[in-house]
């Protein structure tokens, strides 16, 4: 079995990756911004069913600082670079999002190259592929790139594009033979770990809490976090994965947010009594987008059903993601079980 470095070890996707790696017998080294987080991360993994925690160690390293990365990468076979800054709400300076994502990726790649790592698998996102193109009749594939200043592209989306492009440029010009694969999941839902709610799972939590007044006419392509984790692990060693961008999606059309609520109500019964059933008029969303930055991406895609290819993930990685409904249901069940709603 291999020694694998997983960056951002306290994160949602990283937690599932670490769990699966340990279950498969790998030795895992995880980075955290402070070693004070180690006991909390271990407790979360233990509660998730991890029993062989002795094969897991932690190192301190931050995306905005050079220190710690050489030690983190020393002696490992593969690096799964999952850590990425996520900012919600209004952002005063886009560079606060873009610089850590881009420069952090380059720090990890330099450390991996200098340590003689075979391959780096970098977590990008569908944000780097399928936003800002307008309402085109198109199945998005890995050949697509989000235009930096397309309508509805926010600072987070730009950070994903710029970080991934910087990684590919580095490997081409300074990589010294290191292999790179990028994984680009659509909206990630599924079983939570610990008490932190991440990414698209906020839709589930806010729905169950009754904090969602209604649903905009928006369609979301969804994938289960367990399948995203499996794709990262498969990408470490799959022969044809080197040098590839790989979307991770179910292959189903994007699902209406109103349908997410309907699934929660049907599958969770009385525990989903606060989930709304009404929609929010398009005009309300468009007016809100004039004043609130977080509504701009939503307003740009109202009524637009995106189609996303899952062919590479199936053919190259052998990953067949479970239906979106399973991710939605599992997310809701885990939040209820963890008293998070």
Q: Topology, please?
A:
Elements: E1 3-6, H1 12-23, E2 27-32, H2 38-47, E3 56-60, H3 69-73, E4 78-81, H4 95-115, E5 119-123, E6 139-140, H5 155-174, E7 179-185, E8 187-189, H6 201-209, E9 215-216, E10 219-220, E11 222-224, H7 225-237, E12 245-248, E13 255-256, H8 257-268, E14 279-280, H9 282-291, H10 296-300, E15 307-308, H11 311-317, H12 324-337
Parallel strand pairs: 1-2, 1-4, 2-3, 4-5, 5-7, 6-15, 7-12, 8-11, 9-14
Antiparallel strand pairs: 10-13
Which characteristics define this entry?
341 residues, alpha/beta, NAD-dependent epimerase/dehydratase family protein, Rossmann fold, 12 helices, Epimerase_deHydtase, 7-stranded parallel sheet, 15 strands
Can you walk me through this structure?
- This protein has 341 residues and is of the alpha/beta class.
- The chain has one domain: NAD(P)-binding Rossmann-like Domain (Rossmann fold), CATH 3.40.50.720.
- It is 40% helix and 16% strand.
- The chain contains twelve helices and 15 strands.
- The strands form five sheets. A seven-stranded parallel beta sheet has the order 3-2-1-4-5-7-12, sandwiched between helices.
- α4 packs parallel to α5 (155-174).
- It is globular and about 55 Å long.
- The model has no long low-confidence stretch (mean pLDDT 95).
- It holds the Pfam family Epimerase.
- Belongs to the NAD(P)-dependent epimerase/dehydratase family. Dihydroflavonol-4-reductase subfamily.
- Residues 4-246 form the NAD-dependent epimerase/dehydratase domain.
- Keywords: Oxidoreductase.
């Amino acid at each position: 079995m291999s020694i694998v470095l997983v960056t951002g070890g306290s994160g949602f996707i990283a937690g599932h990756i670490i769990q699966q790696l340990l279950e498969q017998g790998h030795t895992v080294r995880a980075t955290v911004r402070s070693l004070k987080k180690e006991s909390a991360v271990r407790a979360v993994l233990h509660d998730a069913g991890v029993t062989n925690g002795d094969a897991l160690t932690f190192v301190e390293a931050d995306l905005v600082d050079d220190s710690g990365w050489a030690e983190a990468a020393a002696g490992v076979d593969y690096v799964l670079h999952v850590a990425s800054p996520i900012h919600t709400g209004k952002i005063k300076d886009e560079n606060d999002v873009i610089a850590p994502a881009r420069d952090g990726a380059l720090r990890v790649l330099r450390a991996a190259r200098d340590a003689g790592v075979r391959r780096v698998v970098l977590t990008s996102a569908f944000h780097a592929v399928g936003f800002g193109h307008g309402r085109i009749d198109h199945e998005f594939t890995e050949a697509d790139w989000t235009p930096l200043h397309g309508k509805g592209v926010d600072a987070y989306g730009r950070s994903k594009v710029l970080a991934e492009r910087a990684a590919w440029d580095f490997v081409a010009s300074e990589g010294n033979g290191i292999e790179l694969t990028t994984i680009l999941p659509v909206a990630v839902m599924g079983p939570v770990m610990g008490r932190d709610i991440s990414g698209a799972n906020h839709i589930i939590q806010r729905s169950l809490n009754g904090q969602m007044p209604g649903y905009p006419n928006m369609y979301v392509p969804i994938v289960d976090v367990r399948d995203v984790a499996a794709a990262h692990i498969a990408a470490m060693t799959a022969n044809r994965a080197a040098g590839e961008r790989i979307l991770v999606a179910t292959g189903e059309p994007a699902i209406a947010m109103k349908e997410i609520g309907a699934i929660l109500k049907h599958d969770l019964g009385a525990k989903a009594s606060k989930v709304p059933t009404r929609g929010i008029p398009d005009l309300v969303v468009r007016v809100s987008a004039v004043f609130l930055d977080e509504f701009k991406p939503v307003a740009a895609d109202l009524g637009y059903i995106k189609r996303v290819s899952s062919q590479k993930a199936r053919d190259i990685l052998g990953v067949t993601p479970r239906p979106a409904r399973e991710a939605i249901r599992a997310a809701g069940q885990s939040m209820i079980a963890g008293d998070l709603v």
